[in-house]
Specification:
Length: 371
Amino acid sequence: MSDTMQIIDPTGKKVGTVPRLKTEVLVRMYRAMVRTRAFDDRCIKLQRTGRIGFSVPNRGIEATSVGAAAALDITQDWVAPHYRDFGIPIFHDIEPESMMDNMFGNVDDGAVGRQMPVHFSFKDKLKYLSISSPLGTQIPQAVGIAMAMKKRGESGVCLTTFGDGSTNSLGFHSGMNFAGVFGSPVVFLCQNNGWAISCPVEKQTASETFAIKGEAYGIPGIRVDGNDVLAVYRAVSQAVKRARAGEGPTLIEAVTFRMSGHSTSDDPSKYVPAAEFEEWKGRCPIQRFRTWMIAEGKMTEAEADQIVAEADAEMMAAAKISMAKSVPSLETIFSDVFEIMPKHLRKQAEFCIGHYSSRGEGVNDKGEFPL
Ligand SMILES: Cc1ncc(C[n+]2csc(CCOP(=O)(O)OP(=O)(O)O)c2C)c(N)n1
Ligand SMILES: [Mg+2]
């Protein structure tokens, strides 16, 4: 990956200039990656044991999400994310319980159970758009948010994340074009994880890289090792700085790998060559950062181990609390749309609730998801 920005290589050796960050921030980045993996692992266990319907594995992607998250000023910056980015809310101290509430679709879920698991919304806690399933829709939304901030004379920027496959969506092209023409303060972060479900990168684009796609829109494109948290941090920080200074958007391609299935409904062993998987095993983003941190005296082996143990316990506890909460009442289907419910909707709500109650089916608490 010679044209790819890298600071720590897969063995944990420094190969580039390390960004000036306090040890406490570096430890926070390490902890966030470990907590992201622990959250992910816990969700997969919950799905495999039938407690939740669905999850989206994040294993292998932790450095891309956490490095990007660490480059933001969340007092003013917005995030328009895709679904494989657990590390962004986790780095910014969204309580795992709040994320688990979405996984269970319970009464405290930000979307009151209306969204699929992994489609978080945090409302007032973070300037973070609720995740959409249709690919690429968050990209023009991010450009719109960025333009609104620019027009208001605010200095915030908007980070939007999406996968390699999503660069084929209309949202990517219209968002990139608009941002290029109007100089929107937006950072486009393409998470190139090698696959769009079972379609490998080579079969979905003839482009040499994803970063190069910026050229057609007059947007600089940067390629970064997505398993190197410091390199991602540096690339996104530079892009944020440019956007804040009124110099316009940047497209960043973070080269990483999905070390699991597309979702819990998928079996990657059916299509990902075993050798490719083995090769990426040696590039674990958490292991490499840990090795470097310990070698640099930023943390000890014992401290690193303790962070792992604490993260596992934290996610198990969060799951236990969220699992015990009740499911949203049927009435919530009709709420949140109008401030004062119109007569016709009230009538429908009464009919619906009466109908299901008479059958003893006030709620569906099976948590099943068909995909
Ligand atoms: C508009 C649209 N088309 C198809 C799908 C079905 N779909 C869901 S995820 C996915 C693959 C996306 O790949 P990529 O953008 O690389 O993201 P990744 O899942 O690899 O993180 C597809 C085709 C969808 N959700 N939306
Ligand atoms: Mg992909």
